[in-house]
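Components:
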Amino acid sequence: MKKAIVNTAECVACGVCAKTCPRQAITIFHGIYAHVNEDLCIGCKKCEKECPASVIQVVEKEVAS
Amino acid sequence: MKRWYDYLWIFSAAYMISGFFNILFAWVGLICFITPLLLSIMGKGKIYCNSYCGRGQLFELLGSRLKLSSNRNIPAFIRSKWFRYGFLAFFMIMFSIMIFSTYLVFNGTKNLEEAITLLWTIKLPWNWAYTGKVSPWIAQFAFGFYSVMLTSTILGMITMFFFKPRSWCVYCPMGTMTQAISILKYGRKMR
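Structure:
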């Protein structure tokens, strides 16, 4: 399944991804970095496309069943 | 559903325009400096950037809705820590020089300069926007502060045009500062 992952070390926590996510899967953790709730993420790539810092990537990920 | 704060871009645009008519409106811009700092000190993280930043909304509007952005990825060095904190340090130094200038006008050492300094170097006469009804230091601060606001708007516009709409947010000194405050407050846990 495709999921968004954030390079938290370089994330600027601007919140563009959280605003653009159609599933509200992204929250900004205490103003430090974006956090993706993988249960909600559908891998649509909207956040990847919009992230001004280009620190989000949607990758194939194994989800524990 | 749109909320009231989704329209703060109007405030931001009105602010930039007002400086062309009366420089004293520049003082209102202090709200955009004090509010994000207070909110992050109060533990609200970067809620100002995330929800209330009119400038960010304006770049979003111009870049995405009006399609003025080329939507390219920003060069990696701009999001690096040394660049972001370096730009913040540079910004703070230039801001301190502006405050010192205001002080010199306040104590009479220096005359009021009715000019805007663009990109920290280019001096533009701006005397039409000042009627001279307040103490010179109040006007000096307004000219200096508006210079900071106009310069950062121009930088933001340039990066909005060449990269993604809200590229300014990557190296915005206020954003770097509020993130640093949040890191100091909450550390780097939950990684």
